[in-house]
Amino acid sequence: MKIAVLGTGMVGRTIAGALAGLGHDVVIGTRDPQATLARTEPDMMGTPPFAQWHAANSGVGVAAFADAAAGAELVVNATNGGGSLAALTAAGSGNLAGKVIMDIANPLDFSQGMPPSLNPVNTDSLGEQIQRTFPEAKVVKTLNTMTASVMVDPSRVAGGEHSVFVSGNDADAKAAVTGILKSFGHRDVIDLGDITSARGAEMILPIWLRIWGALGTGEFNFKIAR
Amino acid sequence: MKIAVLGTGMVGRTIAGALAGLGHDVVIGTRDPQATLARTEPDMMGTPPFAQWHAANSGVGVAAFADAAAGAELVVNATNGGGSLAALTAAGSGNLAGKVIMDIANPLDFSQGMPPSLNPVNTDSLGEQIQRTFPEAKVVKTLNTMTASVMVDPSRVAGGEHSVFVSGNDADAKAAVTGILKSFGHRDVIDLGDITSARGAEMILPIWLRIWGALGTGEFNFKIAR
Fold first, then answer.
1. Which chain A residues are closer than 8 Å to B211 by Cβ?
2. Do the chains contact at A226 and B215, CB–CB below 8 Å?
3. How far apart are CA A205 and CA A202, in angstroms?
4. What is the pLDDT of residue A94?
5. Contact (CB<8Å) A207/B204
6. Do the domain assignments include residue B190?
């Protein structure tokens, strides 16, 4: 499948690399490809420069948001939550119409101090904001409840015995995303309901951050025991 | 131990019955014991009248909030989240001073429509509100992330292979609550940190409600796979 992954951070790189490894035709979208590839220093979070990753993953294309989305059948939103609407707007509503947007971002809000809070939250969610802004796209919220390495290789944690959620209004879109999740090795995909259920999936982040602190590793996941 | 359980709903009854069964000296606190015992009809949620439960659990005392709290070494807040501060205020700050408050309530807000949202949320929590209002008490948030039957008998779900969280400022209080949790059969007790981590534990409720809908049963629980 032709897939655009919007976002050049650790999450975007991890997802793009894994999808390419599964044989998909993957392009990473960024605001300014020249600038992204020209950077030579690690970013604030210590993430190595993109060009270094790209040299090792040269099968993945790099393009401006709109060019990446125009050629894609499915678009992954792997940008920071605070920049997601701007990135998708740059991708262009016409380039998103009729397509599945697999939204894996979290609307972390660092303006209220640490640990981050969420914005939007409670009676709205980033997933819903994206669906409202791009009504012709089919938004599916998923994977935002775990760290990037576990998203694409669930066997890294407890032999893969844990759960992943999907939220969205379109059954076919959720089935397409579920297919991708299963290709990563996820075995327990729970359909939470329509896109308003993205509120719950996003609101799991605050306890995720505390569990990360308690365990000293982000390599864990929620399993729905039943 | 002498334990007061504030709240006469399903959660309060389940916790009180289980604690009495473990040999504790348990009193259920309510606003007006006479009125509570006089009711003969099920409530709005279909919960049978309290007197019917009490007839089968006559070893559990029934008293006004203040009387229940005055005689207790540990107080369980099993009231509705929206009524918790009023109930604890009726119990009396003097009767709570120096004691552990095991807070198992959720601040569900039905005023924004269904499914319920939370209030407070995100940058505050019910657990923190209680700790601020009763600074001499030692609040420990716990058990709010699962249904009542699983709180007191974790073996009902997946052989007890799942997790429970504690949040609070006082290490001894968390140790005391952890002892109670283990006496119920909980084996994986995760210390999330200080009482501000109750935000995360409470914000898990929206996805809990969606999973309940997806599975058709409340008898599930979160396991932190790692």
1. 190, 192, 224
2. yes
3. 6
4. 98
5. yes
6. yes
The answer to whether residue B197 neighbours chain A at the CB level (below 8 Å) is yes
- What CATH number did the domain enclosing A209 receive? 3.40.50.720
Confidence band for B200, pLDDT divided at 50, 70 and 90: very high
Say yes or no for a CB contact (<8 Å) between A210 and B200. yes
CA B105 – CA A159 distance, rounded (Å): 34
Of B102, B174, B223, B217, which is closest to residue A221 (Cα–Cα)?
Answer: B223
Nearest to B77 by CA among B218, B202, B194: B202
Interface check A150 vs B, CB under 8 A:
no
Q: Inform me whether the pLDDT recorded for A46 exceeds 90.
A: no
How many folded domains does chain A comprise? 1
- The answer, yes or no, to whether ipTM is higher than 0.90 is yes
Could you tell me the residue range of the domain that residue B25 belongs to? 2-215
SS3 B2: strand
Q: What is the mean pLDDT of the segment spanning A112-133?
A: 96
Domain assignment of residue A139, yes or no? yes
Whether B64 has a pLDDT exceeding 90, the answer reads yes
Chain A nearest C-alpha distance from B141 (Å): 13
B102 assigned to some structural domain: yes
